[in-house]
């Protein structure tokens, strides 16, 4: 049996606070769980055995045990969100939700980041904890940085903490976009940016719930299909999407294939309340399919062209079908562990979106969609 190994070249940096989430449906508290984008992303990356460091702050009241210890801030309390849901679902699968930040821990300062080089970084704040200077430091430390737009555009009502959105140009982060590799946004969050303008500065990935996601870059776009799922709790689906997407890039998949992997993990996340615990046999089957797809993509020498890395290569639909089968077919047979080969992807051209040089769901605000 070959055991998964941790490869130094896959090391990443995840920046965003852990949270306490309280889910309230029709006025009744239905769950109190570990929250924060970092917790959902950690579940994906840990399940796929990828190495990374985490910069996250909590207070002394932090109530959960995690695989990656946060920074405990004396005299501060852990960020807490209250999510108010309405059980009624409209024809497009949306549920009404109002999200409120009940309290906030300290921000993550540039000095809180480790002084090291990283192959990939993920800026995934949820409560306003990532500052422009912190993101700028990440861009200095990491070869490629993926950013969840919610870390940039959320604002909070001074009285009751209701989450609102500001225009990206007014966020204080806009000048950093040309240095960002991938910017992820939900369909609702696109109201805060001009996609036609931003896609000229960095690659934009927009998740659209049951419709999958769309990848936009300077010269084109591609639609990536979803995975049907039974939604129980949509919280963290976009975070899980981003974790799967970046994991795919780390493994050397082309961008559309990585987005497809993101859709898979987003669909898995909505089947759980809180941070999901993925079935180990399912994870192994996903690893096997990713390894097969990677080897298939290596056979295309044209991938040295970064533009091709952004397009669907032959075999994409088969990869989609294989992941669908891995998700729904019985997994009671013995599992052979496989080793993921984290090879290096070609460098990118200056005028193309920045891909990982080492082959690198958001939570909607007023409404919730069952993410891809």
TrEMBL record:
SUPFAM superfamilies: Ribokinase-like
GO biological process: myo-inositol hexakisphosphate biosynthetic process
Domain annotation Carbohydrate kinase PfkB: ranges: 204-275
Pfam families membership: PfkB (PF00294)
The entry's keywords: Kinase, Transferase
Top-level taxon in the UniProt lineage: Eukaryota
A GO MF term: kinase activity
Family the entry assigns: Belongs to the carbohydrate kinase PfkB family.
Full protein name: Inositol 3-kinase
Organism field: Parasponia andersonii (Sponia andersonii)
């Amino acid at each position: 049996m070959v055991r998964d190994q941790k490869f130094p070249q896959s090391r990443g940096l995840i920046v965003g606070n852990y949270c306490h989430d309280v889910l309230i449906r029709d006025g009744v508290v239905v769950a109190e769980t570990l929250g924060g984008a970092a917790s959902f992303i950690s579940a994906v990356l840990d399940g796929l055995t990828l190495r990374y460091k985490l910069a996250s702050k909590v207070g002394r009241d932090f109530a959960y045990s995690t695989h990656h210890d946060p920074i405990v801030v004396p005299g501060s309390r852990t960020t807490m969100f209250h999510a108010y849901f309405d059980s009624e679902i409209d024809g497009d699968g949306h549920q009404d939700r109002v999200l409120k930040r009940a309290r906030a821990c300290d921000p993550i300062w540039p000095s809180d980041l480790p002084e090291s080089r990283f192959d990939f970084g993920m800026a995934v704040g949820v409560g306003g904890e990532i500052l422009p200077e912190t993101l700028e430091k990440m861009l200095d430390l990491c070869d490629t940085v993926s950013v969840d737009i919610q870390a940039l555009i959320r604002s909070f009502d001074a009285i009751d903490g209701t989450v609102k959105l500001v225009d990206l140009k007014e966020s204080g982060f806009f000048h950093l976009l040309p240095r960002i590799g991938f910017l992820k946004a939900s369909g609702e969050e696109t109201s805060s940016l001009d996609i036609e303008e931003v896609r000229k500065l960095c690659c934009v990935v927009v998740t659209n719930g049951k419709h999958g996601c769309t990848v936009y870059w300077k010269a084109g776009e591609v639609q990536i299909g979803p995975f049907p799922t039974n939604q129980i709790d949509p919280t963290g689906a976009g975070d899980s999407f981003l974790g799967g997407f970046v994991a795919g890039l780390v493994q050397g998949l082309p961008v559309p294939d990585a987005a497809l992997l993101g859709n898979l993990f987003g669909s898995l996340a909505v089947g759980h309340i809180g941070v999901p615990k993925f079935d180990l046999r399912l994870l192994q089957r996903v690893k096997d399919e990713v390894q097969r797809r990677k080897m298939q993509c290596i056979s295309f020498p044209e991938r040295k062209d970064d533009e091709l890395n952004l397009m669907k290569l032959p075999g994409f639909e088969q990869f989609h079908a294989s992941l669908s089968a891995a998700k729904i077919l019985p997994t009671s047979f013995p599992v052979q562990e496989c080793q993921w080969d984290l090879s290096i992807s070609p460098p990118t051209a200056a005028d193309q979106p920045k891909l990982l040089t080492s082959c690198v769901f958001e939570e909607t605000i007023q409404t919730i969609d069952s993410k891809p």
